[in-house]
Write a structure and sequence with these properties.
- It is a single chain.
- This protein has 127 residues and is α+β, with helices and mostly antiparallel strands.
- It has 3 helices and 7 strands.
- The strands form 2 sheets. It has a 5-stranded mixed beta sheet with strand order 2-1-7-5-6, with helices on one face. Strands 3-4 form a two-stranded antiparallel ribbon.
- It binds FE2/S2 (inorganic) cluster.
- FE2/S2 (inorganic) cluster binds next to loops.
Length: 127
């Protein structure tokens, strides 16, 4: 229940801030300026630090890696092997594999991996 209500909150805020976030997607140079698209005013507990393609990011316990990245305006999580097109989370339940990233050296679906302190996340490729 918590995870789905949190996701809904993120998606609602994401939609309302879409114009500002679209500039952030896939832009390595502007990730440090990433907006926090989470609903304001909620006690989320202690934040967790992790990196995405070397950029320092913050998230919260209970979020998935994909949710934390979406909250920072990052929806492109990997490139397609054909056409080099940006790909991101689609099903949000571990089925489509569109959100595959490399977490601490292992390919994982970002939508099904709980965020943890110190994680090293790299944008994924499907070989
Ligand atoms: S979004 Fe489909 S597996 Fe993660």
């Amino acid at each position: 229940m918590f995870a789905s209500s949190g996701l809904i909150s993120i998606l609602i805020v994401y939609r309302s801030k879409a114009e500002t976030s679209i500039k952030m997607v896939g832009s390595q140079s502007t990730r440090a300026e990433a907006p926090d698209l989470r609903e304001a005013g909620l006690d989320r507990g202690p934040s967790l630090g992790f990196t995405f393609d070397g950029a320092a990011m913050r998230g919260y316990a209970g979020e998935t890696v994909a949710a934390a990245l979406l909250a920072a305006g990052l929806v492109a999580l990997r490139r397609s092997p054909r056409g080099d097109a940006p790909r991101g989370a689609f099903c949000w339940m571990g089925v489509c594999q569109e959100c595959t990233v490399v977490i601490d050296g292992h390919r994982r679906p970002a939508c099904r991996t709980a965020l943890a302190e110190g994680m090293t996340v790299l944008s994924g490729t499907v070989a």
